[in-house]
């Protein structure tokens, strides 16, 4: 497992983040090379550049970027490829939310996801001062839920509706019924 370098995203990074997220969730490469794909469930954009920019600039919210080896920010002439990202949002004094987790599909199943998740948890604990991390996972994604459970997350029993209006606005369509795409909320004490 190789070492990763992390940094917080800047608004200028949003155009590079969007294709990574799209490829990991709904791109053609996610179908053939990745295991975290939603491409069999949904079509359309997972998120657009404006949505990513909003996540980067929102209060108590960060987007974490991961690179192999040393990396400098774009304004410092960095040229290394982005291989993973995630968002961490402070929701309360004790709780952070983990989302928009994407690893380049051609590099999945090599330990990168574990490293990114661990870094995000440490960031939430040390920088945001929270004691718990939560996330929402599409309930039919049993293998993904199992992956998080092996990393200490547990099913809270809380369920949420899939944001159908948001998906439709992005040109998306469900390849199964929208009602099958509800969220399971997972959490972990940090």
Automatic annotation (TrEMBL):
GO terms for molecular function: acyltransferase activity, transferring groups other than amino-acyl groups. Pfam families: Acetyltransf_1. Residues 4-190 form the N-acetyltransferase domain. CDD domains: NAT_SF (cd04301). It comes from the Eukaryota. This is Acyl-CoA N-acyltransferase. It comes from Cladorrhinum samala.
């Amino acid at each position: 497992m190789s070492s990763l370098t992390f940094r917080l995203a800047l608004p200028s990074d949003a155009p590079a983040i969007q294709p990574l997220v799209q490829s990991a969730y709904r791109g053609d490469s996610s179908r053939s090379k990745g295991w975290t794909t939603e491409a069999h469930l949904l079509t359309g954009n997972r998120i657009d550049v404006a949505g990513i920019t909003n996540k980067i600039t929102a209060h108590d919210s960060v987007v974490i970027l991961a690179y192999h080896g040393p990396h400098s920010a774009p304004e410092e002439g960095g040229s290394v490829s982005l291989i993973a990202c995630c968002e961490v949002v402070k929701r309360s004094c004790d709780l952070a939310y983990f989302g928009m987790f994407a690893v380049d599909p051609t590099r999945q199943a090599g330990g990168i996801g574990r490293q990114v998740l661990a870094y995000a948890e440490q960031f939430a604990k040390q920088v945001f001062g929270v004691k718990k991390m939560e996330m929402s996972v599409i309930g039919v994604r049993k293998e993904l839920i199992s992956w998080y459970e092996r990393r200490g997350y547990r099913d809270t029993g809380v369920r949420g509706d899939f944001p159908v209006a948001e998906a439709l606005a992005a040109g998306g369509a469900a390849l199964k019924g929208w009602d099958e795409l509800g969220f399971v909320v997972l959490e972990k004490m940090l």
